[in-house]
Amino acid sequence: MLVMSVIAISLTLAVLVAYPIIRKIASKSPFPEDESSLRADLERRWESALEGLRHAELEMSVGNVSESDYLWLKQVHMAEAALVLKTLEISDKEKGFLIKRIPSGSGYEEEELS
Amino acid sequence: MVELGQIALILSFMMATYSTVVGFAGGMLNGRDLAASARWGFYSICPLLILATASLIYAFVTNDFSVKYVAENSNIAMPKVYAWVAFYSGNAGSLLYIAVAFSLMAGIAIRVLNSKLPYTSPYALGVMSMVLLFFLAVILFLANPLERHQIVLEDGQGMNPLLIHFGMFIHPPFQMLGLISVALPFSIAIGALLAGRGGRDEWVDQGRLWGMVSWLLLTTGLLLGAWWAYTILGWGGYWAWDPVENSALMPWLAMTAFVHSIMVQKRRGMFRMWNMVLIIVAFAMAQMGMFINRGGPVPSVHSFAESTMGWIFLAVMAITLFISLVIFTFRFDTLKSRSGLDSIISRESAFLAQNVLFLLIAFITLWGTIFPIFSEAIDDTTMTIGQPFFNKVNGPLMLLLVFLMGIGPVLPWRKAGWGSINRMLRLPLIVFFLVLLLSLISGIREYWVLLAFAICSVSLTTVFQELIRGSRSRHSRGESWGIAFFSLIGANRPRYGGYVVHLSIIMLAIGITASSFYDVQKDVVMKPGDSEVLGKYTFKYLEVSEKAYPDRVEETAKFEVWMGDKNIGYMHPYRAFYPEFQIAATRGAIHSTILEDFYLVPSEFKEDGQAVFRVLINPLVSWMWAAGPVLILGTLISLSPKNRTQRKRLRLPNVSVDQNPLGISE
Fold this sequence. Notes:
The structure holds 2 protein chains of 2 kinds. The N and C termini of chain A lie far apart (about 65 Å). By secondary structure, chain A is mainly α. Helix content of chain A is about 75%, strand content about 0%. Chain A contains 5 helices and no strands.
């Protein structure tokens, strides 16, 4: 009984590790997006800029920051977002659309370019 | 069953070896099939270790004393429910527990990493497999809990009586899990470096997630340990700066610094090197904890018996530290910060100052803990550093941390002008002086207490100020107060979850301060019928009853207690003697209120009917135990995923990028 159990477990393990290599499941699927690509980095920076704007707005709305600090914070986060857009190869029209939408987009509304 | 467990252990060792080699190979060769194979190999380890664990617990439940570990850690008299505690009460079993728990957590982490960080995950998998491989090697070759005896014993030695307590079902599992879970963010960070990444903050989200999980486990373990010490060890305290306690505190301090610092990297792309160093230090300290716990040379009341195993852990710690620093050095150039500090008065600066303090306390604690080794090496005398040193040196630094905890989160990112500082800190500073004044008027003269209460009041005020201002802002836009409050927290979970955690830390700080400075203690010799007074409590010793159990003799005292004129009922402290172990375990009787604990514990029952009792009044201790659930709640709020509305965002258009005008390093 013990021998049979050991054989069964060992075979299961062998199949488990051999299957992905024999069937090449992972290599047949499309390459996942590289987390270190410039694109992924820009997305993180974009998210960070919007998050910064959202926080600045929240701080302003609850009365934590002065008007001048809020304007400065808004400016630096807008500049960061604009830099990200500048790096992307998108049309001026699309950039203009995104920049125009940043303040409201830093809230909760969803806007997406098609 | 035991043999099946043994085979499961051997197979899990083989699978861990396979996952380590194939995981790294998959990463280096960019072989996705190899990485998938390594992953599945790793997933199989957890069920195998569960099988080994089940076979050990089965041996405990069936009193199979042919298994050496079972014979050493249980006996026929042990209640069957304690089979779970007996499983990890010894060195070998605790290693198996760590291995099975880590294989489960790491399996979940790898599953998540594979989708979030596909190019980093094979390396992270390799590191995690290597950590597990080490534990499995120690289990198989040095401390196998399933090893059989040459001769079959009729009864076992039994479990250490001090471990027979409800707290033992949860404190050691959390503590061990907390220590080993530091390996998760460490593996992700080192995996990112090995993959040639880390310079673009790729690993930050996952590092923070698993760092927070680890931090939560470590904190829960520490709090449960303090609670266990307070309720079962019968000395009236909860923290003694014992080496094993310190060894759990050190990684906690480093991890606390890490979970704060990683947020700065996420928001600003700063502290990239610092965070790598922090997580390497945190893992080294967790390994140091295991070294001390596994029979290192530092004497402790609750470490495992002295053995050579501790030195193996120390050697592995040294090797891990060396390799990690070599990898870090090779990737040094990729870890430059994206931006610098805009101002000294900003949230980033407060986090940095906090980080430095956390590490300072951690290294002071480390120095105090390992000092006996140095003293012995220098002049052959073992000098231990006691509570007064730690209290005097770490106490003020911790107070400074609480102060920074109060002001740091309300400072804006990047910079704060005087206008903003005035808005945010005016009220907390007014409260600071008000509390100082009120404390002086109420008769408090100890300047550390005055300072502690005033600083705690600053932190408390900033938390409530934030919650009230945020709720008021939403209320002014038409939401009811209740909805405004909960939607505020729901919409900004990491921020407000953090505030809830800070609230619990304030409760802890107040509890520790009050109980450290204002505890009252008295040792009394009483015979039945005697009454004594301590503070506003009057207690009458009524009788003592003796009861014999198969493994122990229990003597239970009965007291009638009054607080002022009010009768608060009967209290039953007891002392149990375990003849086989020649150990007496006492358990205090505690009458706990929100303001103070009245604590009665027997020291000795004499032949002539007299008994010696230690009586204590510990102020605000219950605040510390109440802080635990608050802390867990806050961490869970912080970790809870964003809802659908919050996930909606202004997305970037899906276009290719083949230029780099920002000068971002590749």
